[in-house]
């Protein structure tokens, strides 16, 4: 997490603008995917985390 923090600080302002710009339906999908990824990682379900991350990445171009 410490290694990711500088990257998150760099990307956060741009991501915030992009997320604020998307429709509420897409914002809901982003939130759902992030929650599912987090839950999968927490429960050590690597296949679930991979699946949700793949969905999250596929949705990215539609959101911007």
Structure at a glance:
The protein has 64 residues and is an all-alpha fold.
Task: Please characterize this protein's 3D structure.
The protein has helices at 5-21, 24-42, 46-63. It has 64 residues and is mainly α. Helix 2 (24-42) packs antiparallel against helix 3. It starts with a helix and ends with a helix. It is flat and about 30 Å long. Helix content is 84%, strand content 0%.
What value does the average pLDDT take? Answer: 84
Quaternary state of this entry equals single chain
* Radius of gyration, whole Å: 13 Å
Unreliable stretches: none
The helix content, as a percent range, equals: over 70%
Tell me the distance between the termini.
Answer: 26 Å
For the report, how would you describe the main beta sheet? none
User: Which descriptor suits the 3D outline?
Assistant: flat
Order of helices and strands: HHH
The chain-level structural class is mainly alpha
Residues in β-strands, percent:
under 5%
Give the strand tally. 0
Number of helix segments?
A: 3
Salient structural properties:
single chain, flat, 3 helices, 64 residues, mainly alpha
Q: What topology emerges from the helices and strands here?
A:
Blueprint lengths: L4 H17 L2 H19 L3 H18 L1
Helix pairs in contact: 2-3
């Amino acid at each position: 997490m410490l290694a990711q923090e500088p990257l998150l600080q760099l990307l956060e302002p741009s991501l915030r603008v992009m997320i604020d710009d998307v429709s509420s339906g897409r914002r809901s999908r982003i939130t759902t995917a992030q929650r599912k990824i987090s839950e999968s990682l927490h429960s050590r379900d690597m296949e679930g985390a991979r699946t949700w991350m793949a969905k999250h990445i596929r949705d990215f171009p539609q959101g911007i």
